[in-house]
Amino acid sequence: MPARLGQVLYWIACGVFAALVTIASPSGAAEVTNPPLEMTINPDGTVMLGGELIVGRDALESKFREFAQQKKPPREIQIRPTEGAKYETLAVILAAAQKAGLKAGLVMSPQR
User: Which helix H or strand E contains 41, and what residues bound it?
Assistant: First the structure.
């Protein structure tokens, strides 16, 4: 089969298949997700959530439950441990987020 005939058959087949395929166009505005919450763990064990000091495990769990019950909960909690932050504090935060049904992840700074 000559190359030119192959090209013609290809374009005819593309036209036939394109007519068979329907693509749904998006309707309305795109849904905007809530921005992530930023949390900082300090070396002394204090926790800052969106600029607010959270003292104690009960306060942390209560705050996470409050966020989880919102109509549009935060997309995720981004945890930024500072240098010298204790792993124990991080483990408590991750467990509390999981218990509340929130997604949490670590944001690490590159080493210098």
Answer: strand 37-41
Query: Which residues have CB under 8 Å from 48's CB, separation 6+?
Result: 39, 40, 42, 54
> DSSP 3-state assignment of 54?
strand
- 108 — pLDDT class (breaks 50, 70, 90): confident
Looking at 1-112, list the stretches that DSSP marks H as alpha helix, in order from N- to C-terminal side: 3-20, 57-68, 87-100
Q: In the chain, what percentage of residues exceed pLDDT 90?
A: 29
Rg (CA), the chain: 25
Q: Is 41 exposed, middle or buried (0-12, 13-18, 19+ CB in 10 A)?
A: buried
Domains within the chain, CATH numbers bracketed: 37-106 (3.30.420.270)
Q: pLDDT at position 98, please?
A: 92
